[in-house]
C-alpha cells in the first residue's frame, strides 16, 4: 500500500511528479552481507497502490530485497520501504510499506562485512569467558551474539573492557583483540547481542584491514554472480501494468 501518512504520501508522489532528474536523484541503500549496497533508481509510476521504480544498473540489483532505505533531497527525511516484485532482467521493482526513518541516516565510518562461514569468538569479560557468534566486523567494531546460559542475569556494562580470540575460515586469526562494550541488547533470555568497539594493536589493525578488503571483494563477486544468474534464468517476467 502507498503510505497513509499524508505528508509522506505527498512526498512520495512528488518524486514521480518532478521532471528534473538532477534535482530528483534517488538512491536506495540496503545492508547485504554486512556491507551497505547503493543503487541509483528512477521513479516509473504509481499504479494500483504501488510505487514502481527502475534500477539504473540492473546488473547489480540482485541484492535489492526486503527492507531498503530511500534517499533524496526531495524527501524531508530518509524513508524506509519494502521491495516487492523485483525483476532482475529489467531492473523493475515496486516499493511498499513506506515510513520515515525517525532517527535519520548516519553514514558508517567504516564498512562492515559478515564472514563467509559461521565464526565463533571466545569473549573474555572481567574474569569470565563466553562463547559468541560473530555477526559482523569492521575496522573499529564488531557485533556478537553471546550465549549466557551459565549466567542469565549477567549485565554487560557499557564501556567495560573486553578481549576476543577468533579465527576466520580463510586463516586470519586474532588473539586478545582488545575492545570495549558499546551496547547490549537482549535477543532472548539466554542470548545477548553486543556491539563492541575495537581497539586493535597495529598488526591486528593491519590484519583486520586486509581481511575486510578480501571479504568485500568476495561479497561483490557473490552479488554480481547472483544478479547474473537471476537475469539469465528462465521464467515469466513480472507484469507491472
Overall pLDDT confidence: 86
The succession of helices and strands, N to C, reads HEEEEEEEEEEEEH
**What is the topology, as strand order, of the major beta sheet?**
1-2-3-6-5-4
Largest sheet: 6 strands, antiparallel, barrel
Structural class: alpha+beta
Main attributes of the structure:
single chain, 241 residues, alpha+beta, Pnp Oxidase, Chain A, 6-stranded antiparallel barrel, 6-stranded antiparallel β-barrel, 12 strands, 43% strand, disordered C terminus
In short:
This protein is an alpha+beta fold and 241 residues long. It is built from two helices and twelve strands.
Structural features, described:
- The protein has two domains: 6-100, Pnp Oxidase, Chain A; 120-221, Thrombin, subunit H (Beta Barrel), CATH 2.40.10.
- The strands form two sheets. The protein has a six-stranded antiparallel barrel. Strands 7-8-9-12-11-10 form a six-stranded antiparallel barrel.
- Mean pLDDT is 86; it is low at 234-241.
- Helices cover 18% and strands 43% of the residues.
- The chain is elongated.
- By secondary structure, it is an alpha+beta fold.
- Strand 8 (128-137) and strand 9 form a beta hairpin.
Amino acid at each position: 500500500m502507498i503510505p497513509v501518512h499524508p505528508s509522506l504520501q505527498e512526498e512520495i508522489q512528488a518524486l514521480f511528479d518532478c521532471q528534473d532528474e538532477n534535482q530528483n536523484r534517488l538512491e536506495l541503500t540496503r545492508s547485504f552481507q554486512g556491507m551497505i549496497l547503493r543503487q541509483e533508481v528512477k521513479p516509473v509510476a504509481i499504479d494500483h497502490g504501488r510505487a514502481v521504480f527502475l534500477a539504473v544498473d540492473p546488473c547489480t540489483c540482485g541484492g535489492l530485497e526486503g527492507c531498503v532505505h530511500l534517499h533524496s533531497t526531495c524527501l524531508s527525511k530518509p524513508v524506509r520501504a519494502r521491495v516487492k516484485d523485483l525483476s532482475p532482467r529489467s531492473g523493475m521493482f515496486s516499493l511498499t510499506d513506506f515510513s520515515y526513518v525517525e532517527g535519520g541516516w548516519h553514514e558508517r565510518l567504516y564498512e562492515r562485512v559478515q564472514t563467509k562461514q559461521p565464526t565463533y569468538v571466545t569473549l573474555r569479560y572481567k574474569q569470565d569467558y563466553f562463547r559468541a557468534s560473530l555477526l559482523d566486523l569492521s575496522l573499529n567494531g564488531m557485533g556478537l551474539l553471546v550465549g549466557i546460559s551459565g549466567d542469565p542475569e549477567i549485565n554487560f556494562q557499557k564501556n567495560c573492557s573486553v578481549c576476543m580470540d577468533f579465527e576466520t575460515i580463510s586463516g586470519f586469526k586474532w588473539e586478545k583483540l582488545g575492545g570495549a562494550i558499546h551496547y547490549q541488547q537482549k535477543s532472548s533470555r539466554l542470548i545477548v547481542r553486543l556491539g563492541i568497539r575495537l581497539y586493535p594493536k597495529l598488526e591486528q589493525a593491519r590484519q583486520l584491514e586486509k581481511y575486510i578488503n578480501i571479504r568485500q571483494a568476495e561479497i561483490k563477486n557473490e552479488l554480481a554472480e547472483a544478479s547474473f544468474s537471476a537475469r539469465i534464468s528462465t521464467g515469466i517476467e513480472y507484469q507491472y501494468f
